[in-house]
């Protein structure tokens, strides 16, 4: 193949002189011609083969100019060129050139000019179009040359400028960096800004003499800028084929830390890992060792050395907007992130060199799978290195429990739509984790390795991963040849729900029927098409007599069918557990007999040691949430908590604290609540007393457990806690120094709940006269405690008088919104609010109805949280009395009435069961003392 000899583009840019000049011609008639282009995707008639880019940033003027030469190939006959260019990027269309490459065997390569008739952007799209005089034939190759200019941003988009404080001189330093993810390369230079188009780049970048530029590839040579005496031009090695979003550089005064090469220590041929930092300390040595340790761990797992000569890690003290940005050969990271304890962050960014840069998603729709796979692997590598110390038992339970909660709602993501993408990524990560277990870790590892080998320097779609895993699993015998991972994964990823498995055993026959359905926790369960939702689910059964065997390989898959039968189960003297250690993201329900055997077994020391930690947590979590959803008796769910008297593992306690919080708030309007508080004290008091006072250098999990135990004991009215809180609060009141931090925050709520009116009013006065020197977040916290903690209506009424009726209120509209939101957290709050609105209806309606955001929130908070027939009657009377007067909130109160009716049915059915269990339990425990 002939090598194209490009003209040295440094000279071409000398006239640029960093001046912006708008020369783009906008075609007003393009909108009618190209309506079919969606997502700003480009036609496939032309593809890039390579880029040569010259960039000249002006840090002082916050502008840049440049020249790009793109070698193109015509896939079909075509008369136009489409490429991406952001609205803020100025293309000098009168200087754009297009030359066709002509090859003569005898005379080498020559160029033929092609006439460009006109150019312009598509309306409302970041697509630039060149209209050519003649059709260019298929298989032709051309060089497109475009001068361009643009602005350097302050936010982390495209090419941006940031600042940090020099640790030595304490002066402010400026730097430039790029963040081209996901499709911001078009902000920097005109290009084919699609991840599936991977080509090599040849790049030079200008910089001031006292700065250094770090690029994707190593520095090749440096020359004096031909015009600007205080600038240099850096030329870099040609990159391998890469996507535009992995292009990047940093221009800064950061110093490369002088370190001994560690490649020999770790027996690595490449790459060299460099750290660029604003400060020098022994911490850098530790971080450098961690980077190599993480790299070695990843390299060993894949058994594939990344084809990079170097990875530059740039620690920037005040990186705006983003915590880190890992691209091909560079990791730009906020300094605090780099120095974090643990390995997960470093592992996630370094894994991205293999999966994300070396191999790349074909389109952004595949980025979710890429992110999920990268995050899962990073967690695996971190746990390989430190045994899971970094996660403290929170992975994957934290994201799993949040998924259970969100995806079991009637309308997932209805309040925060931005959560949806994050939730989908977490769900995909858990599906990948499930496959790692069910296929076998060795099979999963070898399948991934072959996947990477087959896609080096290329792109992939999600199905490519599943195919590689299927082929490996069938070869290894861990997956039946009739099954396909693509179908399995698709059933989870494509549905915005999670399944629930129900097991009903026939103890005489040693069999069981296993059913699947959509897991719905929030009532009513009237989700459209729920009967059609089915999953491929691994059925992994652990028997009581084989609990010590770590077998996670699935022998049976529910192949999107509602019911299957399982044989060869133990007799009625032994329980079974399905989905031990939360291998798959789905809860499991059992028949009452199996639940009772589990409860009894866990109340023995042998049982608690035999059932793994995550499984104990799962059994608790599943039982309580299934009871709340209406799929399990609350008596059975309460029985599953009996072993907590002896449980001391923070991982198992985590779902219990969540349950106490949520369930306690839910029933606090009923007479059952007082008995529930006594039950809470029974279990938490021994735990809290055993934890004792805080000691130096104790584990974080112990500190967190003590804090949570104290919080819920205080909320339940545990006398020692209340006395301790009031003593501390009294010192705060009586001392001349009334700074907010004089009292531990965990004592404020119990004092406002159980303390006197005078103590509560002292807090209110402090909020009204809050010192300007203090953080506003402290005032917000104190106001939340004043509103959300009291157990007497008198306190709430006094606050509402001041906030809603007072002529010269010290409360802003944001304060009032906060008050409305906080009052929904307990029955005293929302009941007081409703009664207050009923009593002062005329004045409140006149004052707030024209302020739609306040009015709607007021009606929602006053009516939306009731859950009993008594509450329904209160809201219905209010609705009937003022029918037609609710304005914009009419639909809100009508929705509240529908929901309360549904919740009242639940309360009527379950509260008697709960009350009976609590009465029996408390009677037995008290009589035994």
Automatic annotation (TrEMBL):
Pfam families: ERAP1_C (PF11838), Peptidase_M1 (PF01433), Peptidase_M1_N (PF17900). Its cofactor is Zn(2+). It is a lipid-anchor; GPI-anchor. InterPro entries: Aminopeptidase_N-like_N, Aminopeptidase_N-like_N_sf, ERAP1-like_C_dom, Peptidase_M1, Peptidase_M1_aminopeptidases, Peptidase_M1_dom, Peptidase_M4/M1_CTD_sf. Residues 296-492 form the Peptidase M1 membrane alanine aminopeptidase domain. Residues 575-901 form the ERAP1-like C-terminal domain. The keyword Metal-binding applies. GO terms for molecular function: aminopeptidase activity; metallopeptidase activity; zinc ion binding. Residues 48-245 form the Aminopeptidase N-like N-terminal domain. Keywords: Aminopeptidase, Glycoprotein, GPI-anchor, Hydrolase, Lipoprotein, Membrane, Metal-binding, Metalloprotease, Protease, Signal, Zinc. Its main location: membrane. It comes from the Eukaryota. One of its GO terms (cellular component) is side of membrane. GO terms for biological process: proteolysis. Residues 1-22 form the signal peptide. It is found in: Cell membrane. The keyword Membrane applies. PANTHER family: FI02158P (PTHR11533:SF18), PROTEASE M1 ZINC METALLOPROTEASE (PTHR11533). Belongs to the peptidase M1 family. This is Aminopeptidase N isoform X1. It comes from Drosophila pseudoobscura pseudoobscura (Fruit fly). The lineage of its organism: Eukaryota, Metazoa, Ecdysozoa, Arthropoda, Hexapoda. The gene is LOC13036301.
């Amino acid at each position: 193949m002939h090598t194209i000899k490009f003209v040295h583009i440094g000279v071409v840019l000398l006239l640029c002189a960093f001046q912006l000049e708008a020369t783009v011609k906008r075609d007003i008639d393009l909108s009618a011609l190209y309506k079919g282009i969606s997502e700003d995707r480009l036609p496939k008639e032309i593809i890039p083969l390579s880029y040569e880019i010259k960039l000249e940033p002006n840090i002082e003027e916050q502008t840049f100019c440049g020249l790009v030469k793109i070698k193109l190939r015509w896939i079909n006959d075509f008369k136009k060129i489409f490429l991406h260019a952001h609205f803020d990027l100025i293309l000098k269309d009168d200087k754009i050139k297009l030359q066709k490459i002509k090859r003569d065997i005898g005379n080498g390569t020559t160029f033929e000019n092609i006439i460009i008739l006109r150019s312009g952007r598509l309306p409302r799209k970041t697509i630039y179009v060149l209209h050519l005089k003649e059709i260019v034939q298929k298989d032709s190759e051309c060089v497109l040359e475009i001068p361009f200019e643009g602005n350097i941003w302050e936010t982390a988009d495209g090419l941006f400028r940031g600042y940090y404080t020099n640790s030595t001189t304490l002066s402010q330093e400026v730097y430039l960096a790029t963040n081209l993810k996901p499709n911001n390369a078009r902000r920097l230079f005109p290009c084919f800004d699609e991840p599936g188009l991977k080509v090599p780049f040849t790049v030079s970048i200008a910089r001031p003499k006292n700065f250094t530029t770090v690029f994707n590839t190593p520095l090749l040579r440096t020359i004096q800028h031909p015009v600007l005496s205080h600038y240099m031009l850096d030329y870099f090695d040609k990159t391998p084929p890469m996507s535009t979003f992995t292009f990047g550089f940093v221009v800064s005064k950061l110093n490369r830390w002088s370190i001994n090469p560690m490649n020999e220590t770790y027996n690595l041929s490449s790459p060299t890992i460099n750290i660029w930092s604003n400060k020098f300390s022994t911490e850098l040595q530790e971080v450098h060792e961690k980077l190599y340790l993480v790299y070695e761990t990843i390299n060993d797992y894949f058994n594939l050395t990344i084809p990079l000569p170097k990875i530059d890690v740039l620690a920037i003290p005040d990186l705006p907007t983003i915590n880190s940005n890992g691209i091909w050969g560079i990791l730009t990271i906020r300094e605090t992130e780099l120095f974090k304890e643990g390995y997960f962050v470093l592992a996630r960014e370094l894994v991205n060199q293999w999966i994300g840069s070396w191999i790349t998603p074909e389109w952004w729709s595949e980025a979710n799978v890429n992110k999920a796979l990268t995050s899962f692997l990073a967690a695996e590598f971190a746990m390989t290195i430190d045994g899971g110390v970094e996660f403290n038992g929170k992975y994957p339970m934290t994201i799993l429990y949040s998924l259970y909660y969100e995806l079991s709602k009637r309308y997932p993501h209805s309040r925060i739509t931005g959560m949806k993408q994050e939730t989908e990524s977490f769900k995909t990560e858990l599906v990948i984790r499930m496959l790692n277990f069910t296929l076998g870790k060795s099979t999963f590892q070898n399948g991934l390795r072959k996947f990477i080998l087959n896609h080096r320097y290329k792109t992939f779609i999600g199905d490519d991963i599943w195919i590689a895993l299927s082929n490996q699993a069938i070869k290894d015998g861990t997956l039946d040849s009739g099954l396909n991972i693509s179908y399995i994964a698709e059933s989870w990823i494509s549905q915005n729900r999670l399944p629930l498995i129900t097991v009903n055993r026939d103890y005489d026959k040693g069999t069981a029927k296993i059913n699947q359905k959509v897991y719905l926790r929030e009532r009513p369960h009237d989700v459209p098409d729920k009967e059609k939702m089915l999953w491929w689910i691994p059925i992994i059964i652990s028997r009581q007599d084989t609990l010590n065997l770590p077998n996670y390989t699935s022998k049976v898959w529910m192949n999107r069918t509602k019911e299957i039968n399982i044989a060869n189960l133990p007799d009625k003297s032994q329980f079974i557990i399905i989905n031990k250690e939360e291998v798959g993201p789905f809860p499991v329900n059992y028949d009452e007999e199996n639940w009772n055997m589990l409860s009894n077994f866990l109340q023995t020391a042998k049982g608690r040691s035999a059932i793994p930690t995550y499984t104990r947590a799962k059994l608790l979590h599943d039982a309580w949430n299934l009871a709340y959803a209406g799929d399990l008796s609350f008596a059975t769910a309460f029985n599953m908590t009996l072993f907590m008297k002896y449980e001391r593992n923070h991982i198992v306690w985590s779902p219990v604290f969540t349950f106490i919080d949520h369930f306690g708030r839910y029933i606090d309007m009923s007479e059952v609540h007082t008995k529930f508080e006594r039950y809470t004290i029974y279990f938490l008091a021994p735990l809290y007393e055993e934890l004792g006072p805080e000691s130096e250098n104790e584990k974080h999990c112990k500190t967190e457990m003590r804090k949570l135990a104290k919080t819920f004991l205080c909320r339940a009215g545990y006398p020692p806690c209340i006395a301790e809180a009031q003593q501390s609060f009294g010192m705060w009141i009586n001392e001349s120094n009334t700074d907010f931090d004089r009292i531990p925050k965990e004592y404020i709520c119990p004092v406002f709940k159980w303390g006197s009116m005078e103590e509560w009013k002292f807090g209110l006065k402090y909020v009204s006269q809050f010192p300007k020197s203090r953080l506003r977040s402290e005032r917000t916290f104190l106001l939340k405690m004043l509103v959300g903690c009291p157990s007497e209506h008198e306190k709430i009424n006094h606050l509402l008088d001041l906030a809603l009726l007072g002529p010269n209120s010290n409360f802003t509209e944001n304060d009032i919104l906060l008050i409305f939101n906080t009052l929904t957290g307990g029955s005293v709050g929302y009941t007081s609010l409703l009664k207050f609105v009923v009593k002062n209806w005329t004045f409140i309606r006149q004052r707030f109805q024209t302020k739609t955001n306040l009015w709607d929130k007021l009606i929602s908070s006053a009516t939306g949280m009731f859950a009993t027939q008594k509450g329904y009657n209160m809201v219905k009377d209010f609705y009937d009395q003022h029918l037609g007067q609710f304005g914009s909130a009419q639909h809100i109160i009508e929705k509240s009435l529908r929901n309360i009716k549904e919740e009242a049915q639940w309360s009527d059915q379950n509260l008697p069961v709960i009350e009976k269990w609590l009465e029996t339990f408390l009677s037995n425990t008290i009589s035994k003392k």
